[in-house]
Structure of Pantothenate synthetase:
Amino acid sequence: MEIITSSKAMQERALQLKKQGYSIGFAPTMGFLHEGHLKLVTQSLQENDVSVMSIFVNPLQFGPNEDFEAYPRDVERDKKLAENAGVNILFLPERTEIYPNEPSFEINVKNRTGVLCGRSRPGHFNGVATILIKLFNIILPDHVYFGMKDAQQVAVVDSLIKDFNFPIELIPVETEREEDGLARSSRNVYLSDEERSQAPHLYKGLQKGSEAIKKGEVNPSSVIHIIENYIKTNTNGKIDYIEILSFPNLDTLEQIHGKIIIALAVKFSKARLIDNIILEIHS
Ligand code: AMP
């Protein structure tokens, strides 16, 4: 596995690969790798000549009271996991490589951000879009791999690629879960033992909602109520949001129909967890 730390060297390498006719698959991450990240790589390896992973904890996408400093990091472990997964090039830039000087431009994501994490984390998707524009221009990928655990991110990247005409295909990858259903996340290490035993109930709550919809419930509030009760009964987590929206447009719905997302965010003492289920309902 090649490790590249300079943006210029990475871009030169990508240009060289393109000239040689190789396709590039790219999975951006913030590291502290787990099976979810590696699933992105596995799929990229199947569909591209060269697979690039980046690890960069992007300060721009964290709010002032969020966990940027405390975000889990273990670069040496990540290098081994990435290499074992088959990553061809690991792009591992320092902060100064990505943000060498005060930027002249500010990216403002207008659509698909007034709901879910976009509402709870103001500015988060502006930071995500900014880093992705940079990474797409540095790595020049043909295919980019994003996990559906962060479904709103998938929706925003879909718009980003279309709005700015990136010659890139977005490949959403299904959420990788622990055996008990908990969505894998770098932040799971910050759950206490008790919280860890409660956390699978987030997905179970989503499943309860999904079952109600499949049985014919079309009122979003009723389904949200079912999930809310279930989570309040089975966890000590504080519900940040539970929402049912169209996907990928993320519009609010009077009635549940078509392709929808049921999404939630729940705060435990040191970790805020998110999860979702996507459904297609045709009556
Ligand atoms: P992060 O390092 O948390 O920014 O995640 C980097 C990429 O991995 C994003 O596209 C995430 O959606 C994806 N990812 C994170 N957790 C999972 C998971 N459990 N299953 C699939 N993809 C995931």
